[in-house]
Amino acid sequence: MRPGGLCRIHHAASLASAASIALPCFPPTTFPPPAFRCFRPGTPRAGGGSMDSTTMSPPGVAVRDPKSLVEKKTAIRCAGCSKLQVIADFDGTLTRYWIDGRRGQTSHGLLQQGNAEYDARRQALYEYYHPLEISPTIPIEEKTKLMEEWWEKTHGLLIEGGVTYDAIKKSVSEATIAFRDGVVELFEFLEELDVPVLVFSAGLADIIEEVFRQKLHRSFKNVKVVSNRMVFDEKGCLVAFKGKTIHVLNKNEHALDMAAPIHDKFGYPNGYNPDSVLMKQRTNVLLLGDHVGDLGMSDGLSYENRIAVGFLNNNTEMSFKSYLDAFDVVYLNDASMRGVVELVSQLCAENQ
Question: Which Gene Ontology cellular-component terms appear in the entry (predicted)?
Answer without folding.
Answer: cytoplasm
